């Protein structure tokens, strides 16, 4: 093995360089909200399943439109002016589950996946679970999860629970 200054390990200002290792992968964080509603599951699901129409029932969304070139994308503007785009990943009318992901957004998170599931609870009752998992970019993923729960999921579920009580179910 050759020796001498030209063959020594590279140094930077007298220190030996260390190999570059990949950064540790951030842990996924989950935000979650559950609500039991005095509404038929089919009626609640019809509102959720209409992916571009989130603004029709969510009080925090000022506008929600299908992207003109892709019906699986919805462009949202919140009541405070925040803009984001979401992609519909799957929508299962039989199981009443919708999954989506952020395409563009201002939140300090990556790899966001949202899910809304409606379950019949007998008669004219149902329960809805809204979850999102993501990898936070900042140190406080729990605070961001709480922001989604308190600022997005809970108000949306409350609106779904009280919406349409006077509208007959056509299922």
From TrEMBL:
Query: Which Pfam families does the entry link to?
Result: Polyketide_cyc2
What is the superkingdom listed in this entry's lineage?
Answer: Bacteria
Q: Where is the composition biased (Basic and acidic residues)?
A: 1-11
Where are the annotated segments for Disordered? Answer: 1-35
Q: CDD domains from the xrefs?
A: PYR_PYL_RCAR_like (cd07821)
InterPro entries recorded: Polyketide_cyclase/dehydratase, START-like_dom_sf
PANTHER family according to UniProt: BLL4707 PROTEIN (PTHR39332), SRPBCC FAMILY PROTEIN (PTHR39332:SF7)
Protein name as catalogued: Polyketide cyclase
What organism is this sequence from? Streptomyces gougerotii
């Amino acid at each position: 093995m050759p020796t001498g200054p030209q063959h020594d390990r590279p140094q930077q200002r007298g220190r030996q360089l260390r190999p570059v290792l990949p950064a540790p992968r951030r842990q996924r964080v989950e935000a979650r909200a559950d609500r039991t509603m005095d509404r038929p599951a089919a009626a609640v699901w019809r509102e959720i399943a209409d992916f571009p129409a989130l603004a029709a029932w969510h009080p925090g969304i000022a506008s929600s439109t299908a992207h003109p070139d892709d019906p699986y994308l919805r462009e949202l503007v919140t009541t405070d002016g925040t803009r984001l785009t979401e992609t519909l990943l799957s929508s299962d009318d039989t199981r009443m589950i919708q999954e989506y992901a952020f395409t563009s957004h201002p939140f300090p998170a990556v790899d966001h996946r949202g899910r809304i599931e409606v379950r019949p609870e007998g008669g004219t009752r149902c329960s809805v679970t809204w979850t999102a998992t993501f990898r936070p970019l900042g140190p406080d993923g729990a605070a961001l999860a709480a922001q989604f729960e308190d600022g997005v999921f809970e108000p949306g579920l409350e609106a779904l629970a009280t919406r349409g009580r006077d509208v007959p179910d056509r299922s």
